[in-house]
Amino acid sequence: MSKSIRAFAPATVANVCCGFDILGFSVDAPGDEVVLTLKDEMGIVITSIEGDDGRLPKEALKNTAGVAVDSFLRSIGSNQGVEIELIKNLPLGSGMGSSAASGVAALVAINQLFGNPYTREQMIPFAMEAERIACGAAHADNVAPSLLGGFVLIRDYNPLDIVKIPVAKGLFCTLIHPHLELKTADSRRVLKPTVSLKEAIIQSGNIAGLMIGLMKPDYSLISRSLKDVIAEPIRSVFIPGFDLIRESVKAAGGLGCGISGSGPTIFCLSGIESIAHQAGEIVKQHFDKHQLQSDVFVSEINYEGAKIL
Ligand code: HSE
Questions:
Q1: CATH architecture for segment(s) 4-165+304-308
Q2: Closest atom, ligand 1, to C-alpha of 260
Q3: What is the C-alpha to C-alpha distance for residues 42 and 304, in angstroms, rounded to an integer?
Q4: Domain residue extents for the chain
């Protein structure tokens, strides 16, 4: 058993417009890193966190990396002592799956240190526990794609039924992160508790269309299906000029765009890399006009999920 290990877990786009809480995918970069070291004394200790400006809790059971390791150790009945160093490359409250990536990187590392007793699928519930600490809801649409890679459907939560979607390679994702912060718990609180029959019908059509479009692949069908009538109409009020962003990205040849997870990051999907870069420029300029600085990341879809470095 190695004593110390470093792992990386990628950023994720949850919801992908029409798949609220049931669909997500991961990108190659950016992502969070964790260094885990086994120690002789009992207890989980977070020794350092880089890149969070001192804002994340160092108390292990309040931090997603610590909670993920704790859930893992309890499941195997171990009281092994562990030190965690967390390197946050993902901005907090960004909608890029920041809390999930820290938990997933820690899980992949501890699993490796213990000789991989669990498959990636089996670790999803541990990572979901960490999400519950972060935002009050144990949703899986960030942790599952960060662990498994690719596009992932959470067909059911009870019992958990995770389906990896066979997606043809060739899609590019642009993430544009405006320097605004939205807490997932707050972005969830504003949603309506019920949906109308009309909304359910539209949403079902789009999610089915998106699944088929991704698998064929049929870029026109993907483009027509990237619509959300449940969360985005409510959450988009937090993002200045959201409708204009959508129109401009499509006009430039992007397949479509939406709010990444609970926002405020915008994701765009494109079938051509140069368009993915152009979409990033368009959205960045849009935010500039609203006096909002933003960071742009262009990446292929990630197909492997978190990895040991
Ligand atoms: N599905 C979750 C939400 C993702 O939209 O609230 C949070 O990143």
A1: 2-Layer Sandwich (3.30)
A2: 8
A3: 33
A4: 4-165+304-308, 172-300
DSSP letter for each residue of 86-154: EE--SPTTSSS-HHHHHHHHHHHHHHHHTT--S-HHHHHHHHHHHHHHHHS----TTHHHHHH-SEEEE
Question: What's phi and psi for 85, nearest 5 deg?
Answer: -110, 130
Rg (CA), the chain: 19
pTM of the prediction? 0.95
**Best mutation site among 16, 102, 128, 184 for ligand 1 pocket (most ligand atoms within 8 Å of CB):** 184
Which residues have CB under 6 Å of ligand 1?
14-15, 20-21, 95, 139, 141-142, 184, 187-188, 231, 261-262
Hunting for tokens 């993002």 — which residue is that? 239
Model pLDDT, residue 3: 86
Topology (CATH level 3) of domain 172-300:
Alpha-Beta Plaits (3.30.70)
DSSP 8-state secondary structure symbol assigned to residue 252: T
pLDDT confidence band for 61 (50 / 70 / 90): very high
Q: Which of 141, 186, 230, 259 to mutate to test the pocket of ligand 1 (most atoms within 8 A of CB)?
A: 141
Q: In this structure, what DSSP letter does residue 21 have?
A: T
- Using a pLDDT cut of 70, give the percent of the chain over it: 99
Residue 2 has pLDDT above 80, yes or no: no
Each residue's pLDDT tens digit, 21-59: 999 999 999 999 999 999 999 999 999 999 999 999 999
Write out pLDDT tens, residues 142-184: 999 999 999 999 999 999 999 999 998 999 999 999 999 999 9
- The atom number, within ligand 1, closest to the CA of 235 reads 5
- Residue 108: Cβ-neighbour burial (10 angstroms; 0-12, 13-18, 19+): buried
Ligand 1, atom 8, lies closest to the CA of 261
* Percentage helix, strand, coil for the chain under 3-state DSSP, each rounded to 5: 40, 25, 35
